[in-house]
Design brief:
Blueprint lengths: L2 H18 L4 H20 L21
């Protein structure tokens, strides 16, 4: 994740975690990811979970020093 996006996400979490009752940063990230998962399942798979998900993902690009 680009540093600017990560900083923006952290700022949103820190500014609203009390109002949203986030138990942790991990819960915030999980909620964000699952919202996107649900959107894609509805859009591309009739609202059903996609099969699979057990294979390892290819690593992302290395960060430049």
């Amino acid at each position: 994740m680009p540093a600017q996006d990560r900083q923006r996400a952290k700022a949103a979490y820190q500014a609203t975690n009390g109002q949203e009752m986030d138990a942790s940063w991990s819960e915030f990230i999980t909620r964000a990811v699952m919202n996107e998962v649900l959107r894609r399942e509805r859009l591309y798979n009739g609202g059903e979970p996609f099969p699979g998900g057990t294979r390892k993902l290819a690593p992302g690009r290395k960060l430049a020093p």
